[in-house]
Amino acid sequence: MPTNLNALIRYKTINNCLSTGREYDIFDLIDACSDALSEYCGRKTAVSERTVREDLRVMRSEILGFNAPIEQKDGYYFYSDMSYSLINIMIADEALLIKVYDLLKEVSKKVSHPGMEDVLKRLGTVKVRTSLKQSGPASEFEEIVLESRMPEMLDFRIPRKPKPSKPTWGEIFRILG
């Protein structure tokens, strides 16, 4: 399983734990992440304490745009804002969207899920719109790249439709897990 997919599974697992309102110590989070990865891999997989601590640091930071309100008190981790969830965060950073698209495109060859094509199509549309901003706006048409069905990147001009919403982390996590 790709390392990046392992990280997404761990982020999802940590989020699920902290979203319950219960406080978790590092060892509870390690066990939960190890169990989740073992379930997805089909074999016993152990996650190190260092890995989970690094995941918590990344989730708290701006690196991936999560900015999770993870607090620690007396060795226990919890969300300071109980309404927060990684699942409901919209992906706003276009550079990150492109990276997520490229990662999902690579993983899609190994993961069979009916929603994968839809997410890839929506992310591909955002990717093209990003490149169009740099070259100037399209008049009444919008260019969309349909890579998922074509071996080469082909541009098509179609009448402008309502912009598809950007996928949330929840949609991406649902497809991957």
Q: Summary?
A:
By secondary structure, this protein is mostly helical. The chain contains six helices and five strands, in the order αβααββααββα.
Give a quick account of the main beta sheet: strands, pairing sense, barrel closure.
3 strands, antiparallel
Known CATH architecture of the largest domain? Orthogonal Bundle
Estimate the global geometry from the Cα principal axes: globular
Range of strand content = 5-15%
What does this 3D model show about the protein?
With 177 residues, the protein is mainly alpha-helical. The chain has 2 domains: 3-88, Arc Repressor Mutant, subunit A (Orthogonal Bundle), CATH 1.10.10; 94-176, no CATH class. Helices cover 49% and strands 11% of the residues. The strands form 2 sheets. Strands 1-3-2 form a 3-stranded antiparallel beta sheet. Strands 4-5 form a two-stranded antiparallel ribbon. β2 (70-73) and β3 form a beta hairpin.
List the helices and strands and how they pair.
Elements: H1 3-18, E1 24-25, H2 26-41, H3 49-60, E2 70-73, E3 76-79, H4 94-107, H5 116-135, E4 141-145, E5 155-159, H6 169-176
Antiparallel strand pairs: 1-3, 2-3, 4-5
Helix pairs in contact: 1-2, 1-3, 4-5
Question: How would you describe this structure in keywords?
Answer:
177 residues, three-stranded antiparallel beta sheet, globular, two-stranded antiparallel ribbon, Arc Repressor Mutant, subunit A, 6 helices, mainly alpha
